[in-house]
Amino acid sequence: MGLNTHSKQDLEDFKSYIIVERNFSAHTAKAYCADILDYLIWIGEQSCEEVNFAKVREYLHFIQKFNYKKTTIARKIASIRTFYKFLYRERKIDSNPAMNLNSPKRGKNLPKFLSTDEIEQILNNVKIETPAGYRNRAILELLWATGMRVSELSGLNFGDLNLANNEIRVFGKGAKERIILVTNRAKNYLERYIETARPLIPKGYTIEEPNENSPVFINNTGYRLQTKTIRNVINDVVEKIALPKKVTPHMFRHSFATHLIENGADLRIVQELLGHASISNTQIYTHVSTQHLKDVYNEAHPRA
After folding, report:
1. Helix (H) or strand (E) holding 161
2. Where are the alpha helices (DSSP H) in 64-169?
3. Is there a domain that residue 258 lies in?
4. Any idea what the CATH number is for the domain that residue 237 is in?
């Protein structure tokens, strides 16, 4: 099976649409385009204009044998729906064969989070004797203090910092701008990193005096630090202290939100700080907090 000329063009146009017009993140756009590429390869020489609802359902039946997670199936269905909605809008098809597709019900998996003690244990075991080590400590302090996504942290430029007011501007999903607050402790680590550690990180490379568009966090060649490096930093520390759980950068975000709600923060404020488009995305943390209370109760009460 191969892609016909029309399908290749449709995919390119769709990619431009979701990135430029819909402001999809690079990660989401890549996933959607991969989903549509798989689908177009499957339909082969058949054009999108010839596909009907039964054909789309046949494809969904086909991918069931790969035992994808429900979340992956749901995303693939969303990709196909968005793709055909785009084709219909552009009048490349007369009717939308994916209009009535239903996504599988997702399981209510509560996000995992770290206790305050676990986070402090991680932070205190980051080696800060080297410039890169001090950078890593500043990064983890920021993740914990702000709840920002690791991609948002990687994308920070000097023009986004307003440390005099303990504020940082970030660009979240869909390039949506928001202001997040920084604790004095995280700000102090960040300021010391910028003043002393950052100029020493590039080994054998000369870096220019930072301007508004310069990346805040850099690697040893002076270029923007990538999210993979941040994940590796966390993995190394967790392995070192033998923490009995898998820890990801996103768990710092989950922990930030969970602890705020546990301590009485208003749900709308947490939504704003996290950059959630819908309050329903933030409400999951109330369930996490409630479940945590139940776990503590069951462990502590003598008759539980």
Report:
1. strand 161-162
2. 70-89, 116-124, 131-146, 150-154
3. yes
4. 1.10.443.10
Question: What is the rounded distance in angstroms from the CA atom of residue 7 to the CA atom of residue 78?
Answer: 18
Residue 111: pLDDT over 90: no
> Could you list the active site residues?
149, 173, 250, 253, 276, 285
- CA-to-CA distance for 220 and 224, rounded, in angstroms? 10
Answer whether residue 104 is part of any domain: no
Say how many domains are in the chain: 2
CATH number at residue 33: 1.10.150.130
In this prediction, residue 185 has a pLDDT band, given cuts at 50, 70 and 90, of very high
In what helix (H) or strand (E) does residue 178 lie, and over which residues does it extend? strand 177-181
- 111 inside domain: no
The pTM (predicted TM-score) of the whole model is: 0.67
- 43 and 145 assigned to the same domain: no
Report how far apart, in Å, the C-alpha atoms of 43 and of each of 8, 27, 53, 141, 267 are: 12, 25, 13, 49, 45
Helix (H/G/I), strand (E/B), else coil: 237: helix
Confidence of residue 2 (pLDDT cuts 50, 70, 90): low
Number of Cβ atoms within 10 Å of the Cβ of 261: 22
Which domain range does residue 25 map to? 5-89
